[in-house]
Each structure stands twice: as C-alpha cells, then as structure tokens.
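Chapter summary example.
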Amino acid sequence: MQLDTITELLQIPGFKVTHMISSTESSREYLLEREEESASICSGCGKVHNTAVHSKGRVIVEDLPMSSKRVYLHVPKRKSVCLEDGSIRVEELEWIRGRFTRRFVEQVYRLTSITTNKEAGWFLGIDDETVYRIDKGMLEELSLEKIEKVKAPRHMSVDEVAWQKWHKYVTNVVDVDRRKVIWNYEGRGKSTLDRFYHKIGKEGCKRIKAVASDGAKGFLASTREHLKNALIVLDHFHVKKYLNEAVDTVRKEEIRKARQQGHEELSQMLHCNKRFILMQNKVTNKQKDMLDKLSTLNERIYKAMLLKEQFLSLYISGNRRVAYANLRAWIGAAIRSGIVSFVELGYKFFRKRHYVLNYFVCKITSAISEGINNKIKRLKRMAYGYRDVKYFLLKIHQHCGLLDPKLST
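The structure predicted for these 409 residues follows.
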C-alpha cells in the first residue's frame, strides 16, 4: 500500500506518512512528518506560541487497527518556552491523548459502554488498567461538556442504589421525560439531594413541577424545602413494595406458628419458595386455587391478602376525591385489623396520604428509576464491583445517562 494512500486513510490534519518503519504479522509502525511548519499550542497554558523552538523529539502513539494489525505512529513534537510561566513545554496536539490517538480513546469509550473493561482491553490488545485510565479520562472530559451544567427537569424521580456493602449508596436524579440520569452523587438523604437543588439554583427549582420518590424522610425534607410549588408523589411501585413486605411479615409469623403447632399442610403452603404467589398482582388459575385454600386455612393471611388487594384497587379510582375516600376507609381498616405490620403501614400511609393522592393529580412514577437501578446492578455485576466511586458515578451516566455514546450516533 502506497504511503499517500496510508496518509489518506489516517486523515491526520497537518501530518503525512513518510516511511513505514516496520511491519510484522501483528503490527505496523509509520513515521509521520509535518506537511508545513505552524505555530505550536503550549501544553501548559493551552495558548498558541510563536516563540522559537527549544528542541524537537518524537513520541509513539497507538492508532486504531488497520487490516487487523495494530498501528503505531511515530509523531514529531516540539518544545518551546511558555510565555506564561517561562517553563519549557512540549506542544499539544489535539488528536493525541497520552499514548493513543483521540479516535482510539473514543473507541475504548464506546466499547466500555457495551462490555467490561477487561473484555474491551482483550479486544484492543491492552490491559484493563489502561482501559480504566482511558475510559475515566474520556468520561471526565465529556462530563464537563454534557452534565456539568445540569438543566432542571419538569418531572423528576429520585432514588438511591448501593454501590458497596455496609450501607454505601449513591443517589440518582432521573429526568422522567427524557428517561435519563441527569445527576448523581455519593451518599443519600437530605444533604445529598440538597446538592442537586443548589446546583440547579432557584430558577431551576421553579421549573420542576413534580417529584416521584420512595417516601424517604431525607428526600422529602429536601424537596419540601427547595421546591415550594412542586407536587411530591409517593411512587405507587414503592407502595406495592410496602404492601408486599407487610404481607411477607405476616407469612413469616404464620409459618413459624404452623411449624410449632405441627401444621404441615399450612407450613408447606407458606414456604418461602411459594411466597412470590402472595406478592403477585395477577395469578394463574392454579395459583388462585392455592390462594383460596390458603384463605380457609389461615384467617390472618386471608385478611392480609384482602387488605393488599383493597389498597391496590385504590389506583383504579378515576379522580383524587374518590381515591381520598377509599384511602381513608383503607387506613381505618388496616388499623382495626390488629395485624401489626398493617397497623404500622396504616399510620405510615396516613402521614403520607397527601403524597399518595398526588399521584391522581400528576401520574408520574419512579418506574424508570427502578429500571435504571436494575441496569446499575447489572453494571456492578459485570465489573465485579467498583472501588472508585467517582468512576462508578461516571459509568452510571455512560450506561443510563447523558454520556451514553448511542445518543451522539
């Protein structure tokens, strides 16, 4: 292949290929020269200097493979005196990032959005530690451009996800309309969410119309303080979770009693491998027969299941007024039931009744946040966990937010 053709393929501005230094079964090395002399950009201050050249040298950078062979470029670089601090600085070339070309770095960034660092490194022939450094540098650069200035959403959802054991969490803010993570930070609670509201400022806070949350005290306190006119919606997916937890608490109590009393049939029906049937909103005919039988064997289980179904029927209500009447009736029934887990849940929903009913004013949920949390958990499993929380936050933006490379294609 002629050198002019190689120059056309590489398309490096201001440089041309003058020699092929070596060619093996796995790699090729090319020597580049400048097409014409030009002023250099100082790597210290980033400004263009027309000062005299102090010295010249060469660096070797890796480019994208060509014909399944790794490509190395020997690039001339100049040193000159920086006019800002008087130090001798090497020039900066926009298309080079460390020991790699810009397009090689971008290829790493795209690969790590669909696979692990280790597998991306294997594909490109570099170690996973190098992939980590390249990927993090690229994400940090893009974050300054795309997520540093956060645009306040109209409808948002906030949730937390664990990134390590021992209660180490990150908080994610999701734009419900765009279905993307727009901000995240290490930690959880009021002080963490306060950072987001401070970042978007008072004008940004005025733009937000509704917030879907799981009802955590810290998130509610922060939102009430900063968003005076926004609706706070207690997400009905989390409401269903609370109901399922209450039912499961009753199940555990009853199976313990059944085993102590030697009630084998009941203990088998309440076994943990069948608990998902109690949690489902829709069941098959076979499962319905089992539930009907269970309701005759144990009154407390039947009452707990009935309370759950009664509450879920609340969301069929056509408007807030009807829902309010149904919610008041349910709270009263739950408190009178005598089942501790539902009594506690009744008082909890009484305290947060306004947030439950706001769903009928603005029907937003944190379902997208739950879906994103599942993607984040898959991301953690793929990487076998993260030690660098800042890198983990950037990876969330890459896989679930505005740094996704698919958005720019």
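To summarize the output: The longest strand covers residues 53-66.
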